[in-house]
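W.,

You were right to be curious about this one. When I first looked at the sequence I had no strong expectations either way, so I just let the prediction run and decided to look at it fresh. Below is the sequence, 600 residues in total, followed by the output.
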Amino acid sequence: MKNLANSDGLPFLSTRLAGTRVSRAGAHSGLRGALDACRSHLLGVGIFSGLLNLLFIVPMLYMLQVYDRVVPTRGSGTLLILTAVLLAGLATLAALDWARSRLLVRASLRLEHELAGPLLGATLAKVDRPMEAIVRQPMRDFDTLRQALTGPALLAICDAPWAPIYIIISTIIHPALGLLALVGGAALTAIAWLNERATGNRLRGATEAAHRAYASQEQVVASAENVRALGMRDAMVERHVGERAAMLVLQTRAGFSSGSYVAASKFLRLTLQSLALGLGAWLAIDNRISAGGIFAASFLAGRALQPIEQLLTAWPSLVRAGGAYRNLSDLIESAAPSVAPTVLPAPKGRVRVEQVTVGRSAETRILTNVSASLEPGEVVTVVGPSGAGKSTLIRVLAGAQLPDAGLVRIDGARFADWDPDRIGAFIGYLPQSLSLFAGTVKENIARFLTDRDAAAIDEQVIAAAQSALAHDMILQLPNGYDTVLGWEGQGLSAGQAQRIALARALFRDPPILLLDEPNSHLDADGEAQLLKTIAAAKARGAATAIIAHRLSVLSVSDKILVMREGRVEMFGERDEIITRLQQPRLDGDHRLIRRKAVNQ
């Protein structure tokens, strides 16, 4: 909490947020833990709000004294003293308001520090349901919740408990004024309840529709080149406009309903405030209150009803914040356990797949009871027709996708027993979709590591590029290793992007290599270089699994895994599998594998 005392809050932001590693324990402490961290700030906001509401009475007391004491007695000295007291009270009110606003900013920064990293980590950890994480847009939900907790909605909540206080003060001036304020408050509360019934479900539906529309838009924009190349621009625009139209229908209906209730509440508040002024005048005519009480009655009625009206106005944001809280709570609760896994020794590269199944029903089944093994210094080539489940198997081995049944073991330990980032550092994974990120070539190869020893990272990046035989190619880029790439490696050819992705897989010589069609974008020379790279990895003891349709990789393979319809059809030594594939009973796909393998 010491950093929160900084004068402008920015040192707290820079030192606690920028460059900070995500605390895995913090990711699972839940939203309540993050709110507890902001408790002192929010408590301060509540206290200052109470003091502010007390000081709002100062102008009313000033009017009472001016009309009841100064004007009848023509006491200019009294007026000067009262004016000095008024200015002191208003100055204190302004100072408290300034302090309250700073507390809200600090609370917002604190929430960012406590939750932003853990939420991003929890989102990336949902490898079993990636699209769900995209559609629900956790960071949008987080911003919605943070703005509600540190914005006008919270101030309306803090001011609302003071409405009864103002009603009591009105009653002290005269019971009739208190009764009028009480009836007005009850009427506004009823309007707020009716507003929730009329708009609550619509607002929640509109929020979900907005999330889907935004997710769809981001996906289309990310694939803009393919959309243009396939002549899909108009179709995708029309589709997205339709999604936004569905969102806007719900928002419009909720807005119309909410607007009606907000207008009714404003009319009621202004009417009651004017009626309070008239009632005060009638009581003053009857000598039951003083002349100053006329203005006090109007002021108190306005202050009693204003917080309720503010709550009604802020209600849509509170509904959205409630939905965001539920979404974020579900996301964090579904993440991995808060207990940090035991730090296991660096793996040697023994990988076993035990009865792995992907797909929760027969209709969605991709892999069925797949079992295989991979040993250090061994190269296994995975072959089979399209749709056989080869890429899914590699994703499961890499931890990019969780199986619905079965286990993956690395050096005997279940994949779940490893810290995800730690085991990821020992796996060189080249996915079919290369997944290069916006950043420099060096950052992509180094997996965006930010170790303090920059010179060591540079050395390891160059070594990985040389292992992938990409070093000379990278030096020909406009800024070499510092060339900035766009998303998905924009600015590179397919072959260049594949070599850089292979260098990323080879970064720091991981003991496990998982390569999905590493030669799909390579020419003959590039493929020959790839075989040298695989042979070098094999020589240093790396366990390597390769998916390949171009079967030149069989020349460096030790074993072949043949898959068909999500099942292991054959698995064994290369020569044994090739011999079995030569049997005349096998179908055309296997004869094709046999011919290409023999020609190697």
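Here's what jumped out at me. The chain has three domains: 29-333, 347-426+511-530+541-600, 432-509. And, maybe more interesting for your project: The two ends are 67 Å apart (CA to CA).

Coffee later to discuss?

I.
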